[in-house]
Design goal:
- The chain is mostly helical.
- The protein has 18 helices and no strands.
- Helix 3 runs antiparallel to helix 4.
- The longest helix has 55 residues.
Amino acid sequence: MALSVGLSVFRFRWLALALVAAGLAAALGWRTLQAGALTLQAAAVLQPYIQQQGEQSDGITCLGQALDDAAGRAAVQRAAGLLERAVQLAPDRAYAYFLLGRAHCLLGDYAAAARALPLFTEQRSTNPQADLERGFALEQLCPPAGECPAYSAVEAWQRADVRPEHFVGRGEAARQAEQYPQAIEWYQRAQQMGADLRSAILYVRYLQALAGGQDEAAYTALRDAVDIDSGWADAGIRFLGWYRYGQWLSEKFGDYPATVEVMQRAISIFPEKSPLKYVLSDAYRYIGFAQLFQGNTQDAVNNFRTAVNIDPTNGWARIGLGKALYRMDPEKIAEVETNFSAAIEWRWENKSIWQDILIFWVENNHPDQAARVCAQADQKGMVVDSCTGIGQ
């Protein structure tokens, strides 16, 4: 009898414990489900703002500027509140911490973002996205380089397995899109991670100053980039830097000996399989004109021919070749005309080419050739000012 009562009590106690355990499991399950629902609700609110920010900042929320419109900030603050409740209910909701970090960046609270994002990484150590965002949050928090006392942007990016070449690639894309301030920022981040991009940064500063009409600042930056000649983003930019410097020496200063020297340097570093063949042709063309102006006619002819062989559509090289041939032998009118005609054929829409050829014939007392040029321009519908009175 006593044994039977004892067993009944034992069974009752285990049943009570099982019910308590089941209740706890149900409660925990409810908390997890509720946290998931809150996270999804917050994600739906944040999605349009994250997408909009990403379009302006290479897909990185913490790289962009904080929201400044009241309605947007209110919506994001509500989403942040939902995410705070989610992680309180279920601290293992990794995605909620990631969204919370992004929400704080949208609100401009970069310190809070830098606290939330590592909690995602603790649970998803193989996913680098939170550390990438954290690096930019730290950059905003401790400008300009993100060197905060406890942790730095570079450390966050290294943990995300970001390498300097990743930032260089972003910089190149920005440069090609003529987004020069952004390109410089990407290059500077790559430098923080150990890359040498001194000449590349100066070259982009040259492009930026040139676009802003600041010729003196542009020339100074370009000269410094070439003088340093170290830390170009790639071989193509290095070639362009030297070419642009030679172009500047020729067109702005008329320093023809220096033009020849610099353009020869540019040609010597031209990268194989580069799409910049037309620029290479133009480098030879600049050498040809510099030599022609210095009286070195035979070398000028050789360089003009090389320019034309590289790019037959180089109209100014064709004109230079024609002028150099005429200087060598004024009787070779036919060959001169052939090159001038080719220049017009390839670049007939360029009014300066028509004007230059016409002036050459007039100055060298060839009225028939001048008249033919004006007649050809008229057929093409090209109005050349100097044609007034010619052939009448």
